[in-house]
Amino acid sequence: MDDVTIRVATADDRLAISILLDTAFEGQAEAMLVEDLRAQNAMALELVAFDKESLVGHVAFSELEKPSGWVALAPLSVRNDHRGRGIGSRLVEEGLDIVRQRHAPAVVVLGDPPFYRKFGFSLEAARNLKTEYPAQNFMVYPLEPHTAGSQHEVVYHRAFRYL
What is the spatial distance between Cα 135 and Cα 138, in angstroms, rounded to a whole number? Predict the structure, then answer.
């Protein structure tokens, strides 16, 4: 994994990101989501992972409609032949560091609790959040003290409604 470089995505990466997403998720829904978030200026951050000259990972952080300033981590993808090497973890960790530096109050994710807990995401901290997603997979990474256990309605950007 030492030969993997992570950096902020550029416009030149877009085709490779779309191909990665189509392959990783076996369909076009996630690639279309990412394109819609970009087109609607709702993308807070995109990171890519490269192994030599090849794109092997991607993570997106997008702005939520509610609460103001919060962001959502989705989607996260790693090329199938590079899974299990810690690339996804590095993308999440570096993304959370950047989001923290940009002073986002919190990050939400809908995903596998054992994977996301190791970064500080918490089901318990999300217990009072109102969302349309299943509570057993909806977590928050509180970046400001008052966000853990807070009562908010969480509304993802409208681009997510087409998934």
Answer: 5
Q: Can you give the three-state secondary structure of 108-122, one letter per residue?
A: EEECCHHHHHCCCCE
Give the C-alpha distances (Å, rounded to integers) separating 142 from 78, 125, 150: 25, 8, 10
- pLDDT tens digits, one per residue of 11-52: 999 999 999 999 999 999 999 999 999 999 999 999 999 998
> CATH number, domain at 86?
3.40.630.30
Domain count, the chain: 1
CB 140 within 8 A of CB 106: yes
Alpha-carbon span 9 to 111, nearest angstrom: 23
> Tokens 């959370």 label which residue?
96
Q: Are strands 71-78 and 106-110 parallel, antiparallel or unpaired?
A: parallel
Residue 80 CA from chain centroid, whole number:
18
